[in-house]
Amino acid sequence: MNSVKKERLYLFDTTLRDGAQTNGVDFTLADKQVIAAMLDDLGIDYVEGGYPGANPLDSEFFATRPKLNHARFTAFGMTRRAGRSASNDPGVAGLLEAKADAICFVAKASAYQVRVALETTKEENLASIRDSVAAAKAAGREVMLDCEHFFDGYKEDPSFALACAKAAYEAGARWVVLCDTNGGTMPNEIETIVTEVTKHIPGDHVGIHAHNDTEQAVANSLAAVRAGARQIQGTLNGLGERCGNANLCSLIPTLKLKKEFSDAFEIGVTAEKLATLVKVSRTLDDMLNRVPNRHAPYVGESAFVTKTGIHASAVLKDPQTYEHVLPELVGNHRKVLVSDQAGRSNVIAELDRAGIPYEKSDPKLTRLVEELKAREAAGYAYESANASFELLARRTLGKVPHYFEVEQFDVNVEQRYNALGERVTVALAVVKVDVAGEHLISAAEGNGPVNALDVALRKDLGKYQKYIEGLTLIDYRVRILNGGTGAVTRVLIESEDENGGRWTTVGVSPNIIDASFQALMDSVIYKLVKSGAPA
Description:
Pfam families: HCS_D2 (PF22617), HMGL-like (PF00682), LeuA_dimer (PF08502). The protein has about 525 residues and is α/β, with parallel strands linked by helices.
């Protein structure tokens, strides 16, 4: 049987350029170098590094070409300005000087934008496109043109939008990229317009650049591929200004795992590299100090989570009942939540995942299910606190060593003047622990009562101190569960160890300090269990 030859689909990443316009995102030079290498390793075809000449950081980044094994390093910039020649335009000169394999020019493809934003003529805009592409082509660069506002421009004046695209192609552009710059075009419109464009420009020279202002950037990108486009531009985790760009962390698995696309196309991302996608996504978030979107498709922590008992029971029989792909294919994992909706199936699944031994006939399992439901009714959230669930399960099944006991703790918050005459607030905590009969007292100051308590608790645990040296608290979240003076507080604490492992613990109490201390204690004890500390 002859296999049908697949068409090549090219992936263009603009995380370092368009993604850098995200509110709150600020890349350093080192960040850009690491991310470019990570994208190259993943199998991305084009890595757009930024806009040389627009700022010192990007100019420095393009002073030396990164060592990329697969991806083509791409510089972004504007076509020549109206009234200047390409050889006399500093922006074009900066692009030609950049140590890049490819140049991506951006030009208006909307008569309205040319008239209002550029205040020039259609003819001059077309000439600018032709001259800039020809200059870069003559310099031996692979050239592409981002047709900015293409879809809005096409709906307003199709002949001019198309003329802009054709001008780039006829001048030698390898790719003509159609941009939904304002992000408001619908998928059916994208498919109709791209189909029309490919009657004039071959589809294997057409790309799509979609913004996510109607939550359809991924859908619009796929619609363009159906219509003939063969390059997709996007960003990791959907970064980008306003509502972001097409999310490559959603597009890549869809292209690899959905038959409509996997049977027809091949991309540069191998199955082996696809399995690193969760790590890539989380690495970027860590670098930017952003909390990962737990509900993100494919790569989110909740992407393969099951909560209700009926669903959990079905997933345990056959994961396909509630999963559209195997989580391992993208580097994720299946998780059955333990919550007030949970039944015995959920609890057993979580015990298996955590590697906690049990006997199915053990009556303690029933007690564990009832205990979970009672605690969740009181405000505990074990679906968000995996480590606290494991400790509760181990305790109920009689499998947690007694490491130490906190005999007493005290926290004071004092507001006073410091030596500079400034009014400051200082928290001081004292913790007294019993470690195998040895009584230890530790005191510590912190920038708040919980921080002081955390530092004091972990300051000296005697023979267990070496096991918690690498433990750090990385996130602290508080939620008030009901109103009034008797409000109950839930505290979730996320911790990390020296190997990058993360876990979450929970505490609940009318007293925020008490709730925090419960979560802190669980975090420390979980680290000891995880490290195999002797009793």
